[in-house]
Amino acid sequence: MALISGSASIRRYRVKEKSDGKFSDEIVENIRRFTFQEFSNESETEEQAGWVSIDDMFRGPLDDNSFQRNAYVTMSLRVDKKIVPARTLRAYTIKEETRYLEVRNRDRLTRQEKKDIREIMRVKLLKQALPSISVYDFLWNLKKSAVYFFSTSERSNVKFTELFEKTFGTALLKTSPLSLAVGLGHDEEAILKLAR
Questions:
Q1: Residues 61, 6 share a domain
Q2: How many domains does the chain divide into?
Q3: pTM of the predicted model, to two decimals?
Q4: Residue 6 sits in the same domain as residue 74
Q5: Among 73, 87, 102, 155, which residue's CB has the most CB atoms within a 10 Å radius?
C-alpha cells in the first residue's frame, strides 16, 4: 500500500464542498454499499471495484472503523479484474466447436452457433480465472478539503473519482501546480507569463 510503504505516484484533488468531518448515516451507508465484494462463483463480470481498509485489502473500511483518523479519511480502492487471454479462449472455443459438431454429426456450424459457443466458453473460462488485484490508497484531509490519490493512471483515477462522488456525494476537482499557486494568492496571469 503506497501510503503506508512510502513510495507513491500521486494525483491531487480538491473537494468541491467542504466537510465538517462528521459523516451522516447516509454516507456511512454508502461506504458500506460500495465496500469491495469478492467475485462470486457464478459471477460473469470481468471487474469488481470498491472500498477496502487501508490496512488490509481483505477487510472493508467499516470492519475496523479505520476509515476516519482524526481530520483524515483514509481508505483504499480495490479493483479486481478477470481476463481470459485471447489465445486461450480461441483454443477452448475450437475444442468445443469440434465436440459440438461430433455430437450432432455435422460438418459446419452456423454463424450464430459459433458466436454462442464462443460466448459460452468465455463465460466458463471467466468463472475459472483468478483475478488480478490492484489497490490504490487515498487520503482526504478534511480541514483543507484536499484529496491525495496514490496513482497517476487515468483509468484508476476515473474509477476513483466516480466512486468517491457516489460515496460522499461531492465532486472532486483535479488540482494542478497553477491552481495551487492561484489558491495561495498568486496572480494567474503573472504565473503564466513566467512560462514564456
A1: yes
A2: 2
A3: 0.79
A4: yes
A5: 73
Q: Is 136 found in the same domain as 77?
A: yes
One domain, residues 34 and 76: yes
Cα separation of 26 and 38, whole Å?
Answer: 23
Instruction: Indicate whether 140 and 189 sit together in one domain.
Output: yes
Catalogue the long-range contacts made by 1-5 (C-beta closer than 8 Å, 24 or more residues apart).
1/54, 1/55, 1/57, 1/76, 1/135, 1/137, 2/136, 2/137, 2/150, 2/151, 3/54, 3/74, 3/137, 3/138, 3/139, 3/150, 4/54, 4/55, 4/137
Tell me, what's the pLDDT at 180? 64
C-alpha span between 24 and 3 (Å, rounded): 26
Residue 155: what residue type?
A: R
Q: Contact, 6 vs 159, CB < 8 A? A: no
- Same domain for 149 and 109, yes or no, is no
Cα 137 to Cα 32: distance, rounded to the nearest angstrom: 17
Cβ(78)–Cβ(47) under 8 Å? no
Question: Could you tell me which residues are beta bridge partners of residue 14?
Answer: 146, 173
3-state secondary structure of 177: helix
Kindly report, residue by residue over 36-94, the tens digit of the pLDDT: 999 887 778 899 999 999 999 999 998 877 788 888 899 999 999 999 999 999 999 99
36 lies in which domain range? Answer: 2-82+132-194
For cell 465532486, name the residue.
171
